[in-house]
Design a protein that fits this description.
Length: 441
Amino acid sequence: MRYDDRRTAGRLLAGELEELRGGDVVVLALPRGGVPVAAEVALHLRAPLDVLVVRKLGVPGQPEWAFGAIGEHGVRVLNRDVIAAAGVSSAALESVEAAERAELGRRVRAYRRRREAVPVNGRTAVVVDDGLATGATAEAACRVVRGQGAARVVLAVPVAPEHSVTRLRQVADVVVCPRTPRDFGSVGAWYRDFDQVPDAEVVSLLARATAAVPSTGNTAAPVEREVRIPAAGSQLGAWLAVPDGAPVAVAFAHGSGSSRHSPRNRYVAAALQRAGLATLLLDLLTDAEAHDRHNVFDILLLARRLHAASVWLHTQTGLPVAYFGASTGAAAALEAAALSGSGIRSMVSRGGRPDLATPAALTRLRAPTLLIVGSRDTHVLSLNRLAADRMHCEHRIAVVPGATHLFEEPGALRTVAELACDWFTGHVGRPAAGASPRRSA
């Protein structure tokens, strides 16, 4: 019996690991195929998720014959018997390790985006892949994790041949594998959908898991501080949070009657911060101005101030800027992002009113845009669909089932946060707005 896809396999595998739920566990995925599987396991176990990037050290001329493995933080595991049998010299060993260490560093930077690794010292490390054939990579991974100080190593895979599972029980403390078919063939043969996992999906899944289950390591939470931003003849009150190594800063544009103290936007901002993104929660109107309802719906004024705030944000942090807009604030964000040379990296709208933006802004917009709307917010959903028809940039409408305009239903706001996190992290490495647009379904 085959699995539908990696996520389905991950949910089944998670059930086999139920006894670990609530313990001091970290889930480590072997990229790239192991990441969607491990994401489901981490979610079920309520454990942090990280990638375990390892590189086998292959005998020169016979790279499939591994004489060791390396991991992060200088970890190196050597098989002295293989080194002796293959006659690997010290010079050859160092040359192979240098090449593999460079590749390991490249992959770590690509996947983790400068976030700190989740510590494994003294914890139960659950090493996850989408399946095993020979098991050589999994063996290397288990040895590296042991070298990093894991108290217990659990290897979990959805499918593998019995002989590989038997051999790996000598390396891991526990091997969990629900399916061990006699006629194995290949890992891909046991999935209906076994498409390659792109790097962008790896980054997105890691960020989403970080937002759902913050790391329990020693990385300090970002310090949120109050700032004042000069914009269009006014001083705007704002809260700025910049985690170490943040790849992008997200400026929030609130809806009418809301402010930087909005519990809904603060919830989303906190999720983005846990995913390593910087956030700026700001008021586009002063307290006195907000009492005049004309100002609340002066979208062009709000857009000018948001643009000024984004220039300030980029200058202060050195980071590319993205927008998160809610209700009328989404219209202002659309206008600001459509300004020539705005350089906005991406944009997310929550229950937005794009009908309040000018039609010209919608057609000029180049920043990849996600429109999140509740399925029960039928009028606003229609407005978003009409606006999407005018857009020539990459864009998508995400409908949250059962949600109304304020996303007050259980789990609705969490879905918004996850969607926003996926969108922003998925567009971190994309060119800034103004590059050739692409439309998504």
